[in-house]
Amino acid sequence: ISDPYFSGTISNTNGNRLQRPRVGLRRGIPSLHSKKEATRSEERARSEGEGESEVDERLKNIDPRMIEMIENEILAPGQTVTWDDIAGLGTAKRAVHLAVIYPLLRPELFQGIRAPPKGLLLFGPPGTGKTLIARCIASQAGATFFNISASSLTSKWIGEGEKMVRALFAVARVRQPTVIFIDEIDSLLTQRTDGEQEATRRIKTEFLVQLDGCGTSTEDRIILLGATNRPQELDEAARRRFPKRLYVPLPDRSGRHAIVSNLLRRLAHALDDQQFETICDRTQGFSGADMDTLCREAAFGPIRAISDIRSANVEDVRPICFADFEYALTQVRPSVSPKDLEIHIEFNKLYGMAA
Ligand code: ADP
User: Fold this and answer.
1) Ligand 1 centroid to residue 30 C-alpha, Å
2) N or C: less crowded end of the chain, CB within 10 Å?
3) How does DSSP classify residue 210?
4) Alpha helix stretches (DSSP H) within 71-124
5) How far does the centroid of ligand 1 lie from the alpha carbon of residue 130, in Å?
6) What three-state secondary structure class fits 50?
7) Nearest to 130 by CA among 224, 223, 233, 228
8) Which of 121, 128, 260 to probe ligand 1 with, by most ligand atoms within 8 A of CB?
9) Residues 190, 226: contact at Cβ < 8 Å?
10) What is the model's pTM?
């Protein structure tokens, strides 16, 4: 991988990690770690060779139904996401490289007190690229990517959330290197509230047990990325569990410019530089997701202008023009309020990591 944040060449030790067989949770699967980096139990499994039908020791006490669910619903497809797909956020990208990417790729350089914490908290308003960053980390580090929202643990798997958490971490261990992305992590870390159900309380407890277990194991290559739009709800104990907290802010002017250019790249448009600048001026306070919505709305302009869509030819579609953006700007408003933004800026000042 050629890497702007690294002066050498990074060899991804897991090269074809993402083409790994779908299940692969059985003993004897071809491990993609180098021998030296493999965990002891993987080593053992391999030296015994064979055993496609034998379940990995670490999954012995896990309900196979849970494993199946994790594979179908939480294990995200290994799409390639590059740092160029993420507009702007230069500071955050640099911090992520030092905190996560390099330690995953070059563990031998990050030993002892250089060993990074296993968890990284991404905070910032919704739609600013936290999920995108997590997917990119997994993709670039050749890691398996687990994507789960905390609320789905308490709602979707009613009564089974606790088992699910245990199974999730067990599967993550077998599949390592692994990136576990937990959206809305604040709801799992905040202290219990009065009306909270017993099941929810147990999920939280199990999650903390697993989280702390992850943090103490030096062998496992599991990175936990927690995302939150409500960092102010994290208490001191929660913050201690995520000593590195990275602010993912709204895109600045050049970030917005990059998002618009990227999205318009494959479509005919008639915008000149000045009009691009005007769009950037008029979208101050827009999140990345808002910019995406705006561009999609504008891109619809030429289609709306066609009188008979059924019989129109592709070449009849006129290029997207500035008027389409002017119209889109009347339809799409920024989704993040200045008040919410202030909360993130304050939290960053107090608890955010230095870039
Ligand atoms: P979050 O996890 O912070 O709520 P996401 O990462 O899910 O936000 O972003 C939602 C969508 O907004 C993305 O799929 C992408 O289309 C767009 N987006 C947000 N931030 C960026 C960015 N920095 N660069 C490119 N696209 C972005």
Assistant:
1) 34
2) C
3) H
4) 90-96, 102-105
5) 7
6) coil
7) 228
8) 128
9) no
10) 0.82
pLDDT at 322: 97
Does residue 220 contact residue 180 with C-beta atoms inside 8 Å?
no
What is the pLDDT, as a whole number, of residue 195? Answer: 66
CA atoms of 316 and 325, how far apart (whole Å):
20
pLDDT one-digit tens code per residue, 21-72? 333 444 333 333 333 334 444 444 444 444 445 667 777 778 778 788 777 7
Q: Give the residue, by CA position, lying nearest to ligand 1 atom 15.
A: 289
Between the CA of residue 56 and those of 43, 175, 180, 247, 309, what are the distances in Å? 12, 11, 20, 38, 56
Q: Tokens for 222? A: 């599991």
Q: Give the distance (Å) from ligand 1 centre to CA of residue 270.
A: 25
* The pLDDT of residue 199: 78
Interface predicted TM-score (ipTM): 0.98
Atom from ligand 1 closest to the CA of residue 86: 24
Residues of the chain predicted below pLDDT 50: 1-2, 6-52
The model's pLDDT over 144-165, given as tens digits with 9 standing for 90+, comes to 899 988 888 777 766 788 888 8
- Whether 128 is in the pocket of ligand 1, judged by its Cβ within 6 Å, is yes
